[in-house]
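lol so apparently i was supposed to do this last week
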Amino acid sequence: MTVVRPPWVAADGDAAQGARDEAFMRRALALGDEALGTTWPNPSVGAVVVRETTNGPAIVGEGVTQPGGRPHGEPVALDHAGDAAVGATLYVTLEPCAHRSVRGATPCVERTFLAGVRRAVIAIEDPNRHIAGLGVALLRSMGVSVTTGVLRGDAARSHRGHFSRVRRGRPMVTLKIARTADNYCAGPGGARLQISCGEASREVHLLRAHHDAIMVGVGTVLADDPQLTVRLEGLEHRSPVRVVLDSRLRTPTDSALFRTARAAPVWIVAAEDAPVHAEHALRGAGAEVMRVGRGGDGALDLKEALELLATRGITRVFSEGGPVVGEQLALRDLVDVMVVSTSVKRLDAPGVVAIRDGLAERLAAPGVFTLRAMQVHGDDTFEIFERPV
Ligand SMILES: [Zn+2]
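anyway here it is w/ zinc ion bound
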């Protein structure tokens, strides 16, 4: 006997399934987003194992890529679920890997199949040439039902650093600018200003913790002697690599970066012609010194510097350098996300302009950046601009 269901029943069922898939994928994305900045060179992948119970679907396992990139999120979630994974659905924010790595870990598609998972819901395909559709194809060939594209846009944003490194050979760059209400980032003659309030500073530290590297120009080191670490309770271990763009190797060996060298590595990117004795001194202080060419204007070739960071596994860079580095990055189309925090305070004096004309024009140019969010942190307003992923 053939059961004919009226079309609205099927439609309702599909809608309910779709809403449920999105809810569990949202949880997986939240897990992945939380670990951003800790998993490079690998993407931060969230995974959730869901099983039908008499009370409806329930989460029986959760996981995320572990610090340093291994194990991946899927085996962590499947191990957490144990036998409950048999017949379950696996929600994962990125296509599972299909290839055996150098270290010989079992590929996630194989782990998924062996765990007895019946259905896999994948947010987005992995452009990595070793995977790129193979993960989905292998799962299907093993008899696992696969749904792709659930919250694809959010997943693309979450994996933006990984995608950028794979597709463009450079990390994604978030440019952060803090300014007074009248658009200054420093006082007359470059005098340091306390612009951001406590709440805004905490937010900035949280943003730092979710990137692989913090990047500044040597001018910022010379003017402010910053530590560039994460100083939030419970997140102190999440200080990213500190990168200084320093063409002539002027970073002082007694700067705060070195006094906190145990918190996170210090990498200095210099020009090929920077003095060798300065390199020796900085290496002695604990820095790693890398060299890139100069661009047409004589300044460091920023694209080459970013590509160098990508070869070292960096996927997400948080640029806190001064207004000059920020503008140079933007004019070379090397900024993907811009965070502008504006204080209620005014300088009311001719200081250092935060958003210079070139950067302002880039921000206002049609079809380049869109304002994605506005947030209030204490006395400061954050505007978050993004380029399309
Ligand atoms: Zn994997």
